[in-house]
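Quick one:
INPUT:
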């Protein structure tokens, strides 16, 4: 008798979104470690965030700069 693989009940789109968020978080962390700025889209314009202003969040998908947080 052939054994069937266990099929995940979580939709593929959810897995893809989680993988994308993880990849983005890793890329942002690498930019900060290397001292490279990141470019983001804010208010219809491209804004460059210096590495020293990048804040890393372990569990959240959103990243802000220390300048934004002080407002």
């Amino acid at each position: 008798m052939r054994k069937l693989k266990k099929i995940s009940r979580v939709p593929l789109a959810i897995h893809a979104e989680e993988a994308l968020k993880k990849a983005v978080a890793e890329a942002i962390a690498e930019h900060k470690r290397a001292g490279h700025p990141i470019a983001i889209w804010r208010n219809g314009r491209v804004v460059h965030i210096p590495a020293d202003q990048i804040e890393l969040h372990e569990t959240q998908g959103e990243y802000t700069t220390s300048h934004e947080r002080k407002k």
